Amino acid sequence: MRRRPEWSMFPEEEHRARTERARALLERHQLDAMVLFSPTNWRYYGGFTDAAQMHNGVWRSCLIVCRERDPVALVHAGFEACIVTMSHLEDVRVWADQDSPISHGRPNSFYPLFFRTLEELGLSRGRLGFETGSEIDTYLPFDELAMIRERLSSARIVSADAAIWAQRSIKTPWEQGVIREGARLACECTRAAFEAIRPGANELDVHRAYWGKAAELGMIEAPYRGTWTCFTSNRDEPTGLHRWITGPLDRAIRHGDQGVSDGGPSYKGYQFDFQRTFHVGEPPEKMLRYHRIATEAHLETISMVKPGVRMRDLFAGSLEALRKRGYYHPHVISFIGHQEGLSHHEPPWVMASEDAVVQAGMVMAIEIGAFDPDFEVLGSMPEDLLLVTDDGTEMLTSSLPHELWIAG
């Protein structure tokens, strides 16, 4: 038994609880093991990750989460220090790609170690789950997966995604505490950015204010997972109000600009996605009207969120909430919400076709927009993060008001 890590990503009790929950889900989904190549899943199940984002064959590594025993990590020597200092994993098998001071007679390639380990664990003929879905950054190339299938011809290789999301979508009490604090801090970052918005300021200045506050609050970490975007647009420019989801430009903010703050930084690996809208200078009545419609429909939709409600019914309810306020247009995107966690967007999505139900412990982002079809003004799409409780929700982004932010 190796010594405890000095700077663990989460407590040992959390690690044990996640392992036991994973075993139960492997049993339910009839999997003997999950073979995980995603650094995000390494973080969740193993308490380590690829902080330098070296996602390629030279550093090939994986985590095997087993139904009958504790997880096994197969890692390149470059990740060994990360595991020693941060992870509670006991069974760690290291390879080194050439003779060097860190090789110590270890295997010099990944796949011989990989196949030998599966044989030793009795998994070479088992039912193995691999990451396959679009929501998981697996980093396992198609050709390597094909090679694994060929070499493990006696095994049955299936998707592990249903088991993974059944666990990751329900946040543990420890996760809830981290996300609650991170959301509070992320709202402070947005406020700092909004206070920097004024005519003549550069968009880059606004981003410096945001990330300066994030650094001050300890929200810049490795790997860098921030997703914040803040963009301004003016109807008199060539693109008009069509600008959307772009990075900061070397552009001076003008009177009459309208814009959106979306996404956020990360905190202890967890990401935050919420939106607020701003206007530079006194907004026209039409802008205020669309903002009011969006905000009221948004808050009405949030009031519908509770355990047992289907995602598709929330989607339908949001359209009805807009219609009651005289807005009869469809949503500009195919969803009005999603789950949130170690990834910016997680399933299940709140869409018209989604039958999954809301469950206590989920962290959901709900976003309802009302935009001007004539593009004379932008309109608004407020978005909030919610923790689903046993009988409703806790709004995690309540410290940032819903009123249209008037800058300058």
Q: What this model shows, in words?
A:
This protein has 408 residues and is of the alpha+beta class. It folds into two domains: 12-168, Creatinase/prolidase N-terminal domain (Creatine Amidinohydrolase, Chain A, domain 1, 3-Layer(aba) Sandwich), CATH 3.40.350; 173-407, Creatinase/methionine aminopeptidase superfamily (Creatine Amidinohydrolase, Alpha-Beta Complex). It is built from ten helices and 18 strands. It has helices spanning 12-28, 39-46, 80-86, 110-120, 142-151, 161-168, 173-195, 203-216, 285-303, 311-323, and strands at residues 33-36, 62-66, 72-76, 91-95, 127-130, 156-159, 229-233, 258-262, 266-267, 270-271, 276-280, 337-339, 363-367, 370-371, 379-380, 383-388, 393-395, 405-407. The strands form five sheets. It has a six-stranded mixed sheet with strand order 4-3-2-1-5-6, sandwiched between helices. It is globular and about 70 Å long. 43% of the residues are buried. The model has no long low-confidence stretch (mean pLDDT 93).
